[in-house]
Model the fold of this input.
Amino acid sequence: MELKREEERYGYFLITPSMIVVFGVIIIPIITTLVYSFVNIDPLSSHNGEFAGLSFYRKALTSSEFWADLGRTLYFTAASTAIETIFGLMIALLLNEDFPGVKFLRSIIIIPWAIPTVVNGSLWKLMLNGEYGVINALLMRMHLIDAYQSWLGNPKTAMLCIVIADAWKMTPLAVIFFLAALQGIDRTRYEAAMVDGAGAFRRFTTITLPALRPTIMVIIVMRTVEKFKAFDIFYLMTRGGPANSTKTLMYDTYLQAFTNLNYSEASTLAYLIVLVVVLMTLGYIRLMRREDS
Amino acid sequence: MEHKTIRRSIGPRSRGRTVLYMFLGLVLAVGVLAPVLWMFMTSIMRPVDLTAKPLKLIPETTTLERFRQIFSSDNGSDPAYVFRIALKNSFIIAVAVTILSLIVGSLSAYAFAQVRFRGKKGLMLTILFTYMLPPAALIIPLYRIYSRLGFLDRKGPLAILYLSFIVPFIIWVMQDFFGSISKSFEEAAQVDGATRLQTLYYIFLPIARPGAIATGILAFLMSWDEFFYSLIFTSSLSSKTMPVAIAEFNGKFTIDYGMISVAGILGSAIPVLVTVIFQKYIVMGMTAGGVKE
Done:
């Protein structure tokens, strides 16, 4: 009994410093933000400080702007997660083979991931430039376009550009996860399948894919949560424009808070994002538990 | 007939397949390296060549003038000077955050993995949740608190914000490493009369060292990459970080892509070198945090 209490004290003693750092920063703001979403915070209005109930949530959920933001956020999230997962898997399968130069490829594949997000954004902005960008120059030379295009200035292509820029940086992460999983597959299983006469496609669907399933799930859930919160690359490449075509929930929250100074609206949006992230996190935890057992 | 098929598929791989792999590998290498090389080319091209139409991919003359400017300028309003100081600020903050978060985080990770205390599970889940929390849900109250405390535009308080999301990450990944160490080490050490802190220091930390290196590198990269808090909380040379300086370059009316590329290269140099050199550790740290075996 005495020993157990001592053990507990030791545990609390060890975690105290990090709990102070983490909860010291988070607790008051996270509660205050929740309060802001239920109270009218507008220093210039006579209603400042009045309890608003759920009216900010109602306002957000009934506005077309919110649903448009959400649609764009989901488009970005789904498109870039899909590209990363599919290309990540294909590249990992290639790099798992043995051929001249594969060691070199394995060591450079991680480079895009290491480039800071903001640098990645400005790199693609530079390449996509409508007046003298290298992508326009190359496409012209290949006769794929007949005039320079303003890729980031066009509401039809801006989001796609961000998806590509983001996927270029983050696909290596998926490659690394898949490579680690592929190397954990027992080689003799493939040999046994070959003796049984299973072709390459059969071997892929009956051995590789089932073995990679947990990794695929983890990548999808983990990346979806991250994408949903993405901000940096939007700020850098388009700032939500042109014509709101790249304005996501996260970017709108930033605009409401720091450009329009609508604190209550911003807090409400932030909490709606939290709600989605919580749901996704719970899904993630359940997934880990299931894969563990 | 049967015999023949088996021979073909497990025998030495056909040359055609190796050639195909090498071709795909080449495409991949171009896809990975071309944007990086283009950033480098832009950084050494003369302004006339940068805006030339049609664009020459390989210019006749190049210039290192911009790099010289970054390292020599001492004019306070010169972007080159601003960038150099921002780089220095980023470095100071990242080093401090890495060291502090490793110390504080690994103590907690050890407690979560090896010590029995009440509320452990709930706390661990809360920690995971705080790591996934979007900073937008904290930012408005945080800004108000920080401005009241006189914490705006200062490196130390900014580093505290970084700790609040990097420490949870370290705990999450490191407890996995600590968890894989057998309890019998600790019992043996206690029989020999070592105190618990001694066993932690002399037994567990050396075993967990590869894990600590891996998470330490990731902590450094996370701090180096951070943009949102820095954008909101820094305003002058005394705390502005590299990503914010690059975003400012991009936000100018006349964008100097040559200078942005120089900044991008210098901002990427440390993370890219660290990542390529310590790739093994990084892969270990990333996969430990995401996929449990």
In short: Chain A touches chain B through 103 residues (CB under 8 Å). Chain A has a mean pLDDT of 90. The domain at 39-292 of chain A is CATH 1.10.3720.10 (MetI-like fold). The radius of gyration of chain A is 24 Å.
